[in-house]
Design a protein that fits this description.
Radius of gyration of chain B: 18 Å
Structural class of chain B: alpha/beta
Strand content of chain A: 5-15%
Largest sheet of chain A: 10 strands, mixed
Shape of chain B: globular
Strand order of the largest sheet of chain B: 6-7-8-3-9-10
Order of helices and strands of chain A: HHEEHEEHEEHEEHEHEEHEHHHH
Oligomer: heterodimer
Number of helices of chain A: 12
Largest sheet of chain B: 6 strands, mixed
Distance between the termini of chain B: 29 Å
């Protein structure tokens, strides 16, 4: 039956080829969406990992149900309150800091973080925001009020030309003021990638926010103290929101939930389109070959044999299209940069899913045409033209 | 008397636009092993409908068809397909070869359906193609073969699973006289040398003259029967007589 199925497809090779290409395009869409999702998940994990062992304090907008990222550009805390928070018992003051967070460029999409953003921090307390992240070039401390530490994305942004990035020791300009690049961060999450870290006091002056900060990051001296510090913050300042790593993760995941839903929906639509495409092609094939199928039935092929033949043809189309999607994806990757996760990693980690989906789609698409084929009356083979 | 296939008061009535058409009317028939039976009659006489009933491809409205002792009415669809596959061979007027398969592939497919092993299939395909005189045309597609060659391939396919009964529906209907005669001679040889049982329907008395027994059919019923014996010239004489009778 495999031989007959393949020959039937070969007989109509242009249609078969176009169908296979259609399947491959559908799988491309699935791969693209999967890459976006994997990239987002990886970024999320990096963000969460960088927040370990700390309490994040913000003053959010009146609508408490609003899920906000950390740090939120809309948050504002009085500097004196921030100082009082840093004095809470159990806080490791050297690893804690008030921060001022100001977007420097517009977000690429509503709800997305801006590509570059200024982050004012108390000099010597950089680790409060950087956490376990390392410096790739230069130093991890600001040193003076005219120095900055850049994330990789920000370094690219301030490069002289497209494809170049600014180097340690070079000068960048923020709101007309020159700063010397003192360090560049290793690749990290989207929050740290676009970071332009500078002295808090300088940032407050530069962005006209005297006496105000966006948030406070408190690191506990001992991990066991974390919950107690959080409770103390909430007791003293009920208007503030204090969140641990887990709560921030929960918030960020809630933010990403709609993205995941969208990706799942697009994947489902891609699978449905492939399913309908293959099914329509197979129905046409069955209609065209009623006589041949009738002959097979007349010479003794059972209904199940006919079903198998149609299912094999459908599977060959869907699986070949899926296999073709791999090399196609590699070619597309040459021209299009998708996310920070390697396409190969995505393909490998999702290969089983994609393979199973291809088999399932192929079989599902064969159901109706196979049923129609299995019910061809063998007498049709004997009806003269 | 042992029979390969028989019918008992078998009727086939079609409903066409609210009108009942009695294609087969109460036919009793018995075909014995090794016999070559021709059912001859004009178009619309019901001979093809009878052949479909004998070939387990259609259900009688009344009466029953027996393959050996087995009543076909007792078989479900799968069992009837299996009967067609393993015990019946079909030769059609329009050849009905699968266009995507070669001559050998068309013969092979019947054995594949029956689950025969690769080596057995290969040997049998070679044997059958030699038998029908097309050993050198094995790789040709149907469209690369003449009408007579296609019908020979169809005969080889019909014989692939060594059927007890070969059913032929106007096998020379699409062939010229000379090519048709070649095909009929081949069928005759199969009967004489292999003891193959054949039931053939035709409207051509010359074709019918190759049979051992000729049934004359008209208006859905068998109107006469003639047993033929002897050489070709005798057959031709008898065929003229049969024509006169009809």
């Amino acid at each position: 039956m495999l031989q007959l199925a393949v020959r039937n497809l070969w007989q109509r090779r242009m249609r078969s080829l176009l169908t296979i290409l259609g399947v491959a395009v559908g799988v491309q869409l699935y791969l693209a969406m999967t890459t976006v999702m994997a990239s987002a998940e990886s970024d999320l994990q990096d963000q969460v990992n960088a927040l370990a062992g700390r309490v994040f304090i913000q003053r959010l907008m009146a609508d408490s149900s609003l899920v906000e990222e950390f740090p939120s550009p809309s948050s504002s805390i009085n500097s004196q309150v921030a100082e009082a928070l840093l004095d809470i018992q159990g806080v490791d003051e050297a690893k804690s800091s008030a921060i001022l967070y100001v977007p420097l460029t517009k977000p690429p999409a509503p709800g997305a973080p801006p590509p570059t953003r200024a982050l004012g921090i108390q000099p010597g307390h950089e680790v409060a925001f950087l956490g376990p992240l390392q410096i790739e070039e230069g130093q991890a401390s600001l040193g003076d009020s005219q120095s900055v530490i850049l994330g990789q994305g920000a370094a690219d942004y301030y490069g002289q030309r497209a494809g170049e990035r600014v180097e340690v020791g070079e000068t960048i300009e923020v709101l007309g003021q020159a700063f010397t690049v003192r360090g560049i961060l290793e690749p990290a999450s989207v929050v740290h990638e676009g970071m332009v870290m500078l002295d808090l006091a300088t940032a407050q002056a530069l962005f006209d926010r005297p006496g105000s900060v966006s948030a406070v990051i408190l690191t506990a001296e001992r991990l066991d103290d974390l919950a107690g510090i959080k409770r103390e913050v909430e007791r003293r300042y009920p208007e503030l929101t204090a969140a641990t790593q887990e709560e921030v993760e929960e918030n960020v995941r809630a933010m990403y939930a709609s993205v995941y839903e969208l990706v799942d929906m697009v994947n489902a639509v891609a699978a449905l389109v492939v399913f309908l495409f293959v099914m329509i092609v197979m129905i046409i094939a069955v209609m065209e070959r009623r006589r041949d199928i009738g002959v097979l039935r007349a010479i003794g092929a059972g209904r199940w044999t006919i079903v198998r033949m149609i299912a094999i043809e459908s599977l060959v189309l869907s699986v070949t299209g899926t296999l073709l999607a791999g090399p196609l994806w590699a070619v597309i990757r040459i021209f299009v940069e998708v996310g920070i996760v390697s396409a190969a990693d995505v393909i490998l980690s999702h290969w089983l899913n994609i393979g199973l989906l291809a088999v399932f789609t192929g079989l599902a698409a064969a159901l109706l045409p196979a049923w129609r084929a299995a019910h061809v009356d063998p007498l049709e083979a004997l009806r003269y033209e | 008397m042992e029979t390969i296939v028989s019918t008992k008061d078998v009727w086939k009535i079609f409903q066409m636009n609210g009108v009942s058409v009695e294609a087969v009317r109460g036919i009793d028939l018995a075909v014995t092993p090794g016999e070559f039976v021709a059912i001859v009659g004009p178009s619309g006489s019901g001979k093809s409908s009878l052949l479909h009933l004998l070939g387990a491809m259609d259900h009688p409205t009344k009466g029953d068809v027996f393959f050996g002792e087995q009543a076909l009415s007792e078989l479900n669809d799968g069992q009837r397909a299996n009967l067609r596959l393993r015990h019946l061979g079909f030769v059609f007027q329009t050849f009905n070869l699968l266009p995507t398969l070669s001559a050998a592939g068309n013969v092979d497919v019947a054995m594949r359906l029956a689950g025969a092993g690769r080596a057995d299939r290969k040997a049998r395909v070679t044997e059958l193609l030699e038998r029908v005189g097309l050993g050198k045309r094995a790789t040709h597609l149907p469209r690369q073969l003449s009408g007579g060659e296609r019908q020979r391939i169809a005969i080889a396919r019909a014989l692939a699973n060594k059927p007890a009964l070969l059913l032929a529906d106007e096998p020379t209907g699409n062939l010229d006289t000379k090519t048709g005669a070649g095909v009929l001679e081949l069928v005759r040889v199969l009967c004489d040398e292999d003891g193959q049982t054949v039931v053939m329907v035709t409207h051509d008395f010359r074709a019918a003259s190759y049979a051992d027994r000729v049934l004359l059919m008209r208006d859905g019923a068998i109107r006469g029967e003639t047993r033929l014996e002897g050489e070709q010239d005798t057959r031709e004489t008898l065929s003229r007589l049969l024509a006169a009778e009809l």
